[in-house]
Amino acid sequence: MNVQYIPVQEKDSSFFVHVHHVAYRKIIEEMFGWDECFQDKQTNQAFDLGGINVIKLQNEKVGIVGWEDRSDYLWLKDLYVLPEYQGRGIGSRVLDTSIQKARSFGKDIHLRTLRANICVKEWYERRGFIVDEITDIHWKMVMYT
User: Fold this and answer.
1) How far is CA 98 from CA 21, 29, 68, 73, in A?
2) What is the DSSP letter of 85?
3) Four-CA torsion 77, 49, 115, 79, nearest 10 degrees
4) What is the mean pLDDT of residues 107-112?
5) Taking the alpha carbons of 114, 116, 120, 124 in that order, is the dihedral positive or negative?
6) Which class does domain 3-143 fall in?
7) Is the pLDDT of residue 101 over 90?
8) What is the mean pLDDT of the chain?
9) Is the pLDDT of residue 124 over 90?
């Protein structure tokens, strides 16, 4: 599987918003209700923070991954795969790359996922992550490398 990570350009912002919305709409609706303007604003702000890459598989845009190299860990801030590409091992490949990246930096890897997103939390746990903290909104997880 030839997965590529292409740093986003401004022209990719609409793709980022689209992927976020289709990947998270159901969970966000369940937790908070869906406010399109608010979600657009939040997602555009996340895009502007940088560190975002388009995930490509055979020249098709299939998702988004965002990494931030923090002082003592690698933050996996975004990992969205379009629903039509889920279940093909792409997310696992991206997560493997993320773990390798953290190890190459000599750092642990941290992430968070929404509390209602139980399937994703369990997916990360199967991959070796543990819950480090629970907030009203998120499972904060870590993998010690």
Assistant:
1) 22, 28, 11, 12
2) G
3) -40
4) 98
5) positive
6) alpha beta
7) yes
8) 96
9) yes
Radius of gyration of the chain (CA): 15
**Entry pTM:** 0.94
Give residue limits of the domains in the chain: 3-143
Beta strand segments in 14-137, E:
52-57, 60-69, 73-81, 108-114, 130-134
Q: Which amino acid is at 11?
A: K
CA distance 107 to 88: 28
Please name the residue that has the structure tokens 């750092």.
107
The token duo for 139 is: 């499972």
Q: Compute CA 120 distance to the chain's CA centroid, rounded to the nearest angstrom.
A: 11
What was the pLDDT predicted at 141?
98
What pLDDT does residue 1 have? 82
Amino acid at 14: S
Helices (H) and strands (E) counted in the chain, each on its own, are 4, 7
Element of type H or E holding 142: strand 138-143
Residue 65 and residue 55 in contact, taking contact as beta carbons nearer than 8 Å: yes
Handedness of CA 6, 29, 48, 135 (dihedral sign): negative
